[in-house]
Write a structure and sequence with these properties.
Elements lengths: L3 E4 L2 E4 L3 E5 L5 H11 L3 E6 L2 H15 L3 E5 L7 H11 L6 E4 L14 H29 L2 E6 L12 H22 L3 E7 L7 H5 L5 H6 L3 H14 L3 E3 L2 H10 L4 H12 L2
Parallel strand pairs: 3-4, 3-6, 4-5, 6-7, 7-8, 8-9
Antiparallel strand pairs: 1-2
Amino acid sequence: MAQNISGTHETINLGKRALVTGASSGLGVDFADLLAAQGVDLVLVARRQDPMETLAERLRLQHGVDVIVEPFDLASSGAAGRLRERLDARSLQIDILVNNAGYGLHGDFLDIPIERTADMIQLNITALTELSYMFGAAMAERGNGHILLVSSILAFQPVPTYAAYAATKAYVLSFGEALHDELRSRGVKVTVLCPGHTETGFDAVAGASVSTALRMLTMQPRPVVQSGLSALWKGKASITAGIMNKIVVFSNRLMPRSMQRAAMKKVLGP
């Protein structure tokens, strides 16, 4: 029988199962670790199998949870549907969806091959939307479930040198907050997590260097993930991780958009 554990305003049922995308590195590892520590069984999804297998074995030994590894490229067309079919074939019910997979591309829009930008949009927007629909529909039918969407503080303003990436995260923020209101009455909690710059290897994938100002704002993954899960259990619409990031987001309300763009280019540009 499922039991409950509680701590610092967090309550979750042991024996439920979470699907964590982007689980081979970065925030995904910490999401898996903290959920497993709360007795949640897991499905780990990412392209790279070996890091997930290593993580899965550690979580099984440390926390006694069931962990299934699904190597999957969610950036490919129709990937979300194929993943759902594979889980259905194993009769796996997903109670918690952590839509964490995503990456950025740094540089002027016209200097980045459009194929790379299209792949990023496929993962950051299309796959996230399809997964939210497929698993969200099942949760709503049961009258219970949790969905966490990972956005970014770049969602709050236009960002030169991250034009397309920031736009994808603005979509995630708007989409997730709207779903929060739509699904609340059907028993499904939806929360958007907006991290700032985090020590995850994001910059290496994006092809970006880290400025001194940005380095001062950098957070470690664990407190970012903790804030996201805590907000999810509380049923918040969205959460910005970290005091300094909250200040950055609030300051946007006081600046004209031209000033926002200039500030972002100075901090994040070449």
